[in-house]
Amino acid sequence: DSNDDIEDVSLFDADDDVSRRSKKSKIRHPVASFFHLFFRVSAIVVYLLCELLTSSFIACMVTIILLLSCDFWAVKNVTGRLMVGLRWWNQVDDDGRSHWIFEARKVSAQGSKTSSEAESRIFWLGLITCPMIWVIFAFSALFSFKVKWLAVVVMGVVLQGANLYGYIRCKVGSRKNLTSMATNYLGKQFLRQVRFPGFWKPS
């Protein structure tokens, strides 16, 4: 499938010597970590408080969309590469075919990781939690008949969901691998139930 090509290639060269000396628990990219959360959290806060701050729906909508757009660009192009060594993008080859590229930084020869555990937690926590919040906002706007806000929350779901999907693909591999992982997990659960049948007994 030409649309789902995956390449395991090295990312931008980094100062490997500095990264080896850094502790795993230390945040080595504080600015990237800050902006990884700043734009997405700010968009959520503005959405929650905009009706209290101003009566202009257009001003709120433009502000939220700008924050979401800045977040999408920053997470896709900067924070993912710096904080967890992952990157994804789309490129068109000479034949005009579109290819989605999902990269993961290769482990160094000494086997040491270039990303710290603290940054990894911050990255994945922000990446997973915020799209879930926008999904809740979408259902809330739908069931409360706030049609004018529906376009805004859908934009939040799409932009942040796209980054979440892209980085999950970078982390675990192709769609085929995602399917095989789910199949293996369900298979293990089934075998566990066969080996150790129910822990309860009928009365």
TrEMBL record:
User: A cellular component term (GO) from this record?
Assistant: Golgi membrane
| Presence of keyword Transmembrane | yes
> Can the keyword Ribonucleoprotein be found in this entry's annotation?
no
- Key words of the record: Membrane, Transmembrane, Transmembrane helix
Pfam families per UniProt: DUF846
Q: Where in the cell is it found?
A: Membrane
Q: Name one GO biological process term.
A: protein secretion
Bilayer topology term: Multi-pass membrane protein
Family stated for the protein in its record: Belongs to the TVP23 family.
Q: What is the name listed in the Swiss-Prot or TrEMBL entry for this protein?
A: Golgi apparatus membrane protein TVP23 homolog
Can you name the source organism?
Anhinga rufa
Upper classification of the source organism reads:
Eukaryota, Metazoa, Chordata, Craniata, Vertebrata
